[in-house]
Design brief:
- The structure is a single chain.
- The chain starts with 6 loop residues before the first helix and ends with a helix.
- Helix 7 crosses helix 9.
- The protein contains 10 helices and 11 strands.
- Helices cover 42% and strands 20% of the residues.
């Protein structure tokens, strides 16, 4: 099945096609031609890879950050919306039927680095459009193999998600962190600025966001660094300073821990396809 519609309607149209054939593997590669893909869900699981920018995927109260050179796995029946940071982002989607007996990997949301083998297979999938059915054996076997290798090459999900705060005091603190990232911010400075004790601030982060102040601020800084790397306007040393690190090795080590690769490697390979 080939899909040929005006960009204006195509994104909405393909969402209705995903589950039409329950046993098919559905393939859709396209530039995101709208400001965002509306909240939706499907019976099949989704492999989502994007190039040309960062994509924000909203699931419940969490916003997941999908950077270049990574993919997101979205299990069946999970409501989500997709928000690119630029209209030039290209989505590469494969949708797979999932069985009860399948590996538990397929039933959890996750963001993973895409290794060379996955990227080669994804590049090969450029020739596919629409439904890949079991009757078309050669294409179906390759697409099914793509699904089967995912748990083997994707060992640990990266926590590239930040929940939205509900507490009004915490909203102001998070905005302050975002606006002053290039300065040397510590919990002590935040407590002095907003009139909290360190203990009460820690409790507030844990209760409202289910993560510590340090965890939240570290991920926030690394996500800003990702965006700056993709923009390709600054050196890694400059980006390190812009997200509040005085030590380049410390920044590089933290980036690798959160993102899965060092900033130098990420910068070289962010648009490999």
């Amino acid at each position: 099945m080939n899909i040929h519609l005006d960009n204006k309607f195509e994104t909405r149209y393909y969402l209705t096609e995903i589950d039409k054939l329950p046993t098919s593997i559905f393939c859709y590669h396209k530039e995101i031609s709208e400001a965002y893909v509306v909240e939706h869900k499907h019976n099949k699981a989704q492999f989502l890879y994007c190039e040309g920018g960062i994509v924000y995927v909203k699931i419940g109260k969490d916003t997941f950050y999908l950077p270049a050179r990574h993919y997101m796995w979205i299990p069946p029946h999970v409501e989500h919306s997709i928000h690119p940071n630029t209209p030039e982002v290209i989505m590469r989607n494969l949708y797979f039927p999932i069985n009860e007996s399948d590996n538990s990997f397929y039933k959890k949301v996750g963001i993973y680095p895409a290794d060379g083998l996955l990227l080669e297979l994804l590049l090969f999938s450029n020739q596919w459009k629409g439904d890949i059915v079991p009757e078309n054996r050669s294409e179906y076997v390759i697409a099914q193999a793509f699904k089967e290798i995912l748990p083997k090459v994707s060992k640990s999900s990266l926590r590239l998600a930040l929940p939205l705060p509900h507490d009004e005091r915490l909203k102001k603190i998070v905005q302050f962190l975002d606006d002053n990232m290039d300065s040397s911010i510590t919990m002590k400075k935040i407590t002095a600025e907003f009139g909290f004790s360190e203990r009460s601030l820690s409790r507030l982060f844990q209760k409202d966001l289910n993560m510590t102040f340090v965890q939240y601020f570290t991920i926030l800084r690394m996500l800003r660094a990702l965006q700056l790397l993709i923009d390709n306007m600054y050196s890694i040393s400059e980006i390190s300073t812009m997200v509040g690190y005085n030590s380049l090795p410390t920044f590089s080590n933290t980036f690798q821990k959160v993102i899965g690769v060092r900033p130098t490697d990420y910068s070289k390979k962010k648009d490999i396809l």
